[in-house]
Amino acid sequence: MHGLRRTVRRIGACVLLAAMTIWTGAIVGALGWLFSAAMELAIRLIWRELPMRLGLGGIREASMAQWPFWFTLTVTVAGAVALAVNERRDPVTVTPIMGVIARVRKTGAYGDGRVLPYFTSALLPLAFGSAVGPEAGLANVIGSSGTRFGRALHGVAAACLRTVRTGEPLHARDGSKADADLQGLARKVINRCAAVCGIIVFFGLGRLAGAGLALPRLGHIQWNPADAAWAIPAMAEGVAAGALFVGMTRLAKLLGEHFGDHILLRNLFTALALSIVATVLPFMLFSGESSLDVLVRHAAEAGPVMLVAIAVARCIITPLCINAGWRGGQFFPMIFSGVVLGYALGGATGADPVFCAAFSSGALIAMVIRRPLTAAMIMLLVMPVASFPILLVSAYLASMIPLPRAFGGVPARNFPSF
User: Fold this and answer.
1) pTM, rounded to two decimals
2) Does one domain contain both 52 and 151?
């Protein structure tokens, strides 16, 4: 009878632990989806419906038309003011996704448990056209919400794990070393399992409601042996673009520091630069992932020179936004730039553009983050699976190329780790 009670307690503790984990993950995933839905709604209202009401029309994808300078500048100036007010009111910094992951791994938490400041700080730049990716904002919202709703469950989760281990009734912590170990284990269990549940809920809600991050998929690689001659040029242009991205990141950081406490002036400068670039070239606003398939379809219409100009401008304006007040993610814009460079080379030489894009994009991202395997895995979000060996080779070779110390990037390794 005593053994049966222990078994029942263990089963009950497992059920309770699973229920808490699923509940936490559902909340985190729902908040992440809400962030994506709010971003899409804001962009539609500001950049599509408002121009229609003003008689400007929306984005005409077939002709790659842009908004007039006065409209883009007006919207971005309004965004600069909103960002400055928000930063003065609650100076929460939107951390890149790799920084969020590193902090969670080190401390088991992200932020101070407040969700709304991260939600607002991540949403505003995206809504007003910043050339950054939404993945950083999404990571900040998920990390802060996971900390907020998971922290209250860690003690109960530790008690559940203690019951699973001993079969004793649930009770509060006893302050022993074993209890402290259980607290750490409970935090890891809740955070990791809730993250998995949150991802499922996030994509589930996105499929049901039609909102959420949706990356385009490029077609199959259709290349012949003659295309191999363009592998090194494709990787070289990715390396050059990655070096430009890192160098511009360093310059933008110095520029942001130069403005000091003049937050509004810094944001207005970025708004002006973003407006000018977005008027001269198409596809400069937002992260690029939603318009990548459009640009790919019209690559021949744009021409190689235009495509290279778009990719280079992206490698300049995105680091400026990230480091001068309009913060967000760097991965989606880098994916966009790498693919565009590949299509530019393919259009100029007749080589398979997807083959060229695999070399250029893998090299670009690896030059910036210096993690070949991570770079290759990131590009699989849009590239066909068959391109993975090309992505990995290109990323590995690019990560071995040194950069000047003045760039302030991660130094090259002789044998970079995967």
Assistant:
1) 0.84
2) yes
